[in-house]
Amino acid sequence: MRPPRPLPFVLLLMACGSAPPTAAPPADLDVPAAFTTAVAADATAALRDDWWTAFGDDDLSAIVARGLEHNHDLRAALARFEAAMAARGIAAGAAWPEVDGSLDAQRARRLFLGFPFGGGGVPSSTTTTFGLSLAVRWELDVWGRVRAGESAAIADVEAAAADVAAAQQSLAAQLCRTWFATIEATDQLALANATAATWRGTAEDVRDRYRRGVRPAFDVHVAATNLANAEAAVTARVEQLQRVRRQLEVLTGAYPRGEQTAPSRLPTALPPIPAALPGELLQRRPDLVAAERRLAAAGCRVDAARAALWPRLALTASGGTASEELDDLVDEDFHVWSIGANLLAPLFRGGALRADVARNEARLGEAVATYGSAMLRAFAEVEDVLATEQQLVARATHVAAAATHAQAAADLARERYQAGLADFLAVADSQRQAFLAGSARIALDRQRLENRVDLFLALGGGYRRAPAGGEP
Q1: Which of 108, 169, 305, 440 can bridge 461 by disulfide, Cβ–Cβ 3.0-4.6 Å?
Q2: Which of 128, 131, 122 lies closest to 108, judged by CA?
Q3: pLDDT reading at 10 higher than 70
Q4: How many whole angstroms separate alpha carbon 101 and alpha carbon 318?
Q5: What pLDDT is stored for residue 437 in this prediction?
Q6: Could you give the dihedral angle defined by the CA atoms of residues 246, 248, 254 and 258, in that order, rounded to the nearest 10 degrees?
Q7: What residue ranges define each of the domains in the chain, with the CATH number in brackets?
Q8: Which of 295, 333, 339 is nearest to 317 (CA)?
Q9: Which of the four pLDDT bands, split at 50, 70 and 90, describes residue 240?
Q10: Directed axis angle between helix 352-418 and helix 286-307, to 10°?
Q11: Could you report the per-residue pLDDT of 187-200, keeping only the tens digit for each?
């Protein structure tokens, strides 16, 4: 007789895991409505995704594009994101039935010892069996343990995606800073060469006057000392330029040969400061988004640990064929099947399950504190950059005036010395002051550019968070 077919089961429709909602900031953190440091911001200025293009330097844009494509640290961040995606797939798979198939073949020989059979030798029997089966097992996620695990994995994916965005923004900022440092080193080298050339001419002039008996030997030694210091400064600037060139090449994934060239002048126009509010950082800065998503994932893992305290209900089914002939595996007369359900309740685990709940609750508290700390650091970075902007604007006026007056004083001192109206110490001091003022002016120009880069980075660049609950 043909075995009865199994009755259809009404399966529960299980909702798949989804990303947990946005976690609220720590309750004890008072976020003001506006930043306390006020600067002249442009309300119409938008913080673009490619904010580095706002500097108007095509070479810089090409450097950043090359770094974003070839940097190895960024590739590592992308690999971590792919690993998080795979882990999400593993967690999602637990919500689906487990289906296993098997094909068995077995040949066995059995001895019949002690049976009063006639004839010589030991009586035996040899059999061959074949089996084809399909087994299904499905855990009904009654308490939401599997769904909570998948939601935590989705939050991990979103955190990893935010980490990639943070790595991209950080890399772009490093490339901009190193690019500006390369240009500054080029400017500083040009200034050092010009200063050495000036001292070379001055030393020759002093030696000529000494040979004619017009100036004492003291002036010759002072001029020679300053020339040697100027030439030493040239070698130091060459070493600095080679070092930042190699740093730039490493950031772009190239071998550090020190051959990367850069323009000889820093950009003079600074991009406008975009208007921003502290609350916007929670959605804009990828590092804050990553910390918030890890906080949400920690909350889901607490739910999963608590759900593990309850019994697990699973449905099982298997079916197939078994026969001594291989051809009979597809014959319905040899079908076998079974249907069942099991309830597994954790009765005694030595306190391990409740300890797991406590561990995940502690990790949730750690994630809350980490999120609050990250928020404070983010607010502090913006406030620091805005305050630095105020100081740099004031310093720029003074440094520019100092450089102008120092150069005028050096020219006047040289003219007075040649006319016999001033001693050589005034010439040496004025030329040294002119070099220092010119070097400080170049360094300040680079600092203002870097501070604008730091501001764009502190505000989160052009990052925008994906809609809540969407596919990461």
Answers
A1: 169
A2: 128
A3: no
A4: 9
A5: 94
A6: -30
A7: 51-70+145-309+355-458 (1.20.1600.10)
A8: 339
A9: very high
A10: 170
A11: 999 999 999 999 99
